[in-house]
Write a structure and sequence with these properties.
- The structure holds 2 protein chains of 2 kinds.
- Chain A is mainly alpha-helical.
- Chain A has 11 helices and 7 strands.
- Chain A has one domain (about 30-255): Cytochrome Bc1 Complex, Chain D, domain 2 (Orthogonal Bundle).
- In chain A, about 45% of the residues lie in helices and about 5% in strands.
- In chain A, helix 3 crosses helix 7 (about 125-135) and helix 8 (about 150-165) packs across helix 11 (about 230-245).
- Chain B has one domain (about 5-105): Sandwich (Immunoglobulin-like).
- In chain B, a hairpin with a 2-residue loop joins strand 4 (about 45-55) and strand 5 (about 55-60).
- The chains are: A mainly alpha, B mainly beta.
- The interface between A and B is medium-sized, with 14 and 13 residues.
Chain lengths: ~260, ~110
C-alpha cells in the first residue's frame, strides 16, 4: 500500500515536471494583459508611445533616396500605410530565392542591397529599427499570419530550440513561457512570450529594440551564450514564436516595462 | 534630428483646464556611464523645459541625469485666449528644440 502511494506520488511529480506543454489557443494572451494601467495608456496613445518616435524617423527614411540606384523605399512600395499593411504580421517569411526564412530586418537589408544598391544597415541600428517599426506599425491590430507550408522546417527547428534546455541554469524557454506563465519570477509576472509587439519600446532599455535583442536578454538570464543577431537559430526561433502566436493581434510598437 | 510628439487640444472652451502632453527623443546620457573600454561617457541631457502661452511663461521644469531617455512631460493650464503655446527644450552641448501649437479658445 505504502509502495503504491510512493509510486503514485512519483508519477505525480513526474507529471508536474513534464509541465503543461503548449498553451491552448484560447488561453493565449499578450503580456499587455499583465501591464499596469499607466503602461497600457502609454502604449495606446500615439502621442504617449515613445515607439512612435521611431515611426516618425522611419517615415523620413522611407521617403529618402538611398544607394547607387537612388531610389527610396517609397519609390517601389508607395506610402508605407498602403504598401506595408499586414506585411510585418507574416514575417519571418519564406524566401524562395534563398530557400530560407527571412525576418523583417533581414528583408529590409535584402531590399537595400539588391534594389537600392546600398550597404546593409547594422542590426539594431537606429535606422534599421526605425524602418522595421514603421513597417510593423502598419500591421497594428491585424492578426499574425503563419500559414506558409514552406516555413514548417523553420518552425520545427525553432520549437526544438524553444523546448531544449540550454545554458548554465539548464533551462528551456518552455519551462517559463509554456509551463509557468502567470507565476512570479522575482517581482515580475512570467509572460507567455508572444512576439506581438516588436519592435517595441522597453522602459528598462530606455529605448526601442527588436525581438532578437529581447531573446538575447532572456538567454543571458539563462546563462546561455546568446545567438548572434540575424543568426539562423534566432530566425528559426522567431518563426516558431510567430507561429505560436498565430491569430493574435499585432501591437507594434508596443511598450513594455 | 529631434523628434517631438505633442498632444494638445486644437480647440478649448474659455476658462477650461487643458492638458498638454509632450514627448521628445533624447538620449538623456547621465554622464555616469562608461564604455566597454572604461572611458566615461560625457553627460548629454536636456536641462530645462519651458512652455509659454502667447509669450507668457506658464510652465517650467528642470531636468536632471536621473530622468529617463525620451522625456515625457505633461502639464495643465487654463485656456485663456486663442494663440500659440510654444514649447522649448534646452540642454547640454547647445541643445535646443522648439515646437509650437495653435489653440483656438471659444
Amino acid at each position: 500500500m505504502l509502495r503504491l502511494a510512493a509510486l503514485t506520488a512519483a508519477a505525480f511529480v513526474a507529471a508536474a515536471l513534464a509541465g503543461s506543454g503548449e498553451i491552448p489557443l484560447s488561453e493565449r494572451r499578450s503580456s499587455y494583459a499583465h501591464m499596469s494601467p499607466e503602461t497600457k495608456a502609454m502604449q495606446d496613445g500615439d502621442t504617449d508611445n515613445p515607439g512612435m518616435l521611431w515611426v516618425l524617423d522611419g517615415e523620413v527614411l522611407w521617403r529618402a533616396k538611398a544607394g547607387k540606384a537612388a531610389v527610396a523605399c517609397a519609390g517601389c512600395h508607395s506610402d508605407a500605410d498602403k504598401g506595408m499593411k499586414g506585411v510585418a504580421a507574416r514575417y519571418p517569411a519564406y524566401d524562395p530565392k534563398r530557400r530560407t526564412a527571412v525576418d523583417l530586418a533581414g528583408r529590409i537589408n535584402i531590399c537595400r542591397v539588391e534594389r537600392q544598391q546600398a550597404p546593409e544597415l547594422a542590426r539594431e541600428s537606429k535606422e534599421l529599427l526605425a524602418l522595421a517599426t514603421l513597417i510593423a506599425r502598419q500591421s497594428r491590430g491585424l492578426p499574425i499570419k503563419s500559414d506558409d507550408e514552406r516555413l514548417k522546417p523553420f518552425i520545427d527547428a525553432g520549437r526544438t530550440i524553444f523546448n531544449g534546455r540550454q545554458g548554465q541554469l539548464d533551462l528551456a524557454c518552455a519551462q517559463c513561457h509554456d509551463d509557468n506563465w502567470g507565476q512570479k519570477l522575482a517581482g515580475i509576472t512570467l509572460p507567455q512570450g508572444h512576439p506581438t509587439g516588436y519592435p517595441l519600446y522597453r522602459l528598462e532599455w530606455q529605448t526601442l529594440g527588436s525581438l532578437q535583442r529581447r531573446l538575447r536578454n532572456c538567454m543571458i538570464g539563462m546563462r546561455a551564450e546568446p545567438h548572434a543577431y540575424g543568426s539562423p537559430e534566432f530566425i528559426a526561433l522567431e518563426t516558431f514564436l510567430m507561429w505560436r502566436a498565430r491569430g493574435m493581434a499585432m501591437e507594434s510598437p508596443a511598450v513594455r516595462p | 534630428m529631434a523628434r517631438v510628439l505633442i498632444n494638445a487640444p486644437a480647440k478649448a472652451r474659455r476658462g477650461s483646464v487643458i492638458e498638454i502632453k509632450t514627448l521628445i527623443s533624447h538620449v538623456m546620457e547621465t554622464g555616469f556611464r562608461v564604455t566597454n573600454m572604461g572611458q566615461s561617457v560625457a553627460r548629454d541631457i536636456i536641462t530645462v523645459f519651458t512652455a509659454t502661452y502667447n509669450g507668457e511663461e506658464i510652465f517650467r521644469a528642470q531636468l536632471f541625469p536621473a530622468i529617463a531617455a525620451n522625456p515625457f512631460i505633461t502639464f495643465h493650464t487654463v485656456a485663456t485666449e486663442s494663440g500659440v503655446i510654444e514649447l522649448k527644450w534646452t540642454g547640454d552641448n547647445g541643445y535646443s528644440a522648439t515646437e509650437q501649437v495653435r489653440i483656438t479658445v471659444e
